[in-house]
Amino acid sequence: MNIEELIDVWGDENVAGIIGLFVGLLFGIFAQQSRFCLRAACVEFWRGKAKSTFAIWLFTFSAALIATQLLISTSSLDISSIRQLNAVGSLSGAIIGGLLFGSGMILAKGCASRLLVLSATGNMRALIAGLVITLVAQASLRGGLSPFRESLSSIWTLQSHERGFSSWLPSQGGLILGIILLIIGIVYAKKYHLNRWQGVAALLTGSCVALGWFLTSWQADNTFGIISIKSISFTGPSADTLMGLINRPSLPFSFDVGLVPGVFLGSFLASVISKQFKWQQFTQETRQSRYLIGASMIGFGSMLAGGCAVGAGVTGGALLSITAWVALFFMWLGAGITDWLIDNPKGIYGKLAS
Fold first, then answer.
1. Nearest 5°: phi and psi at 110?
2. Residue 74: is it exposed, middle or buried by C-beta count within 10 angstroms (0-12/13-18/19+)?
3. Are 2 and 242 in contact (CB under 8 A)?
4. What are 315-336's pLDDT values in tens digits?
C-alpha cells in the first residue's frame, strides 16, 4: 500500500496524527535520555560555567539546523507554505515574549518541553506547571489575554517576505552555521566528558525536528487535502489538545494532537526502562508559588513569542526565521537576568540572603 492509498483508507487527519505520535515518541525518548534543557544550559552559560549541559543544547540545536537545512537544500522540504516564514511576524512579540519566557523557565525550573518530559517521569511539580502553562497559553491565544497579546505583537511587525534571513548568508550559510555550532558543542563535550549516549541522544533529539518537517511535507506532497507542514512545538499543541479534551466528546486526530501524548509516552517509557522514573512532589523548599508564576509567564510569553524554546527556538530557528532567532536570544537574556536576580549566589538576592 502506497502513501496515497494509505491516506484514502485512513484519512488525512489520522495519518497526520500518527506522524505526530511517532515524532513525539522519538522526541520524548531522546529528550529524556539526553536531559535536553534550555534552562540548565542558560544557567551554566550565564554563570560562566558552561559545561556538558550547554554542549547538549548545542548538539540538539545544531542537529536540527543542519538536518533541516539539508532538507531545504535538497528540495525535500518546500518552505513556501511554512507559517514561520510565510506569515506576518512580530519582532516586539519575539522580544517581549522571549524575555517573559526566559524568566518564567528559570522560576518554573524548566521550559515547556522540559516540563512535559519531566512530568512523564513522575515529577508532579512539572505536571502542575505544565497544566498552568497550557491554560495561560490558551487564554493568550483565544481567551481573555488575547487582546493584550495582540496589542503587544502589533508594536513591531515583519511582513512575510522579511521573516527569513537565509538570503543574508552565503550559499549553504545555514548549513555552515550549524556545523560551526556542532563543532563548538563537540569541544565542550570532550572538555567536560559528556556521556557518549547523552551526546548521541541530544543529536537525535534535534534530528526529530527535521523528521517532523520531512514527514509532514511528505504527506502534504501526496494528498489532495490541505496539510500544514509543521514540526515540533509544545505550548500551542498542548493548549489545543487540552481544550479539545475538555470541550469535545471526541477529539479529531492531527499532528499536534498526536505529538503531545507521543512525547509524554516516549519520556515515560525511557524513564521506566532506564530506571529513572521517580515520584516527586512540591516541598517547602520547592516553593509552589514560584512554579505557578513561572508557568504563567511561560504560557503568555510563548504565545507572544510565536512558540516555546523548542517551537520557536529550535524548530523555527532551524528554518532561519528572524523572529525565532530573536525570540531565542531574548529567552537566553531573560533567563540570565532572572537567574542573576533570584538564584545565583553571586547575584542580588544571593548577596542579600548572605
1. 160, 155
2. exposed
3. no
4. 999 999 999 999 999 999 999 9
Cell of 31: 529528550
Determine if residue 308 is left, alpha or beta; phi over 0 gives left, psi from -120 to 50 gives alpha, anything else beta. Answer: beta
Give the residue carrying C-alpha cell 529528550.
Answer: 31
Give the domain ranges of the chain.
Answer: 3-353
Averaged pLDDT for residues 201-216: 98
Bridge partners of residue 158, in order along the sequence: 89
Query: What is the C-alpha to C-alpha distance for residues 351 and 30, in angstroms, rounded to an integer?
Result: 38
* Cβ 40 vs Cβ 31: under 8 Å: no
* 93/343 Cα distance (integer angstroms): 26
Residue 349, pLDDT score: 55
Neighbours of 60 (CB within 10 A): 29
The strand pairing partners of 157, in sequence order, are 90
Calculate the CA dihedral of residues 30, 32, 33, 37 and round it to 10 degrees.
90
Nearest residue to 317 (alpha-carbon basis) of 113, 141, 24, 67: 67
Q: How far apart are CA 99 and CA 93, in angstroms?
A: 10
Strand locations in the chain (E)? 89-90, 157-158
**Which residue is listed with cell 486526530?**
253
Predicted confidence band at 287 (pLDDT cuts at 50, 70, 90)? confident
C-alpha cell at 11: 484519512
Give the span between the Cα atoms of 70 and 77, in whole angstroms. Answer: 9
Integer Cα distance of 314 and 309 in angstroms: 7
**Cell triple for 254:** 492531527
| Neighbouring C-alpha atoms within 13 Å toward the C-beta of 341 | 10
Answer yes or no: are the C-beta atoms of 205 and 266 closer than 8 Å. Answer: no
From 228, 208, 213, select the one nearest 83 (Cα to Cα).
228
The CA-based angle 196-200-205, given to 5 degrees, is: 145
Grouping H, G, I as helix, E, B as strand and the rest as coil, residue 175 is helix
Least confident of 6-15, 86-95, 171-180, 288-297: 6-15
Is the whole model's pTM more than 0.90, yes or no?
Answer: yes
C-alpha distances out from residue 194 to 40, 198, 202, 260, Å: 15, 7, 11, 29
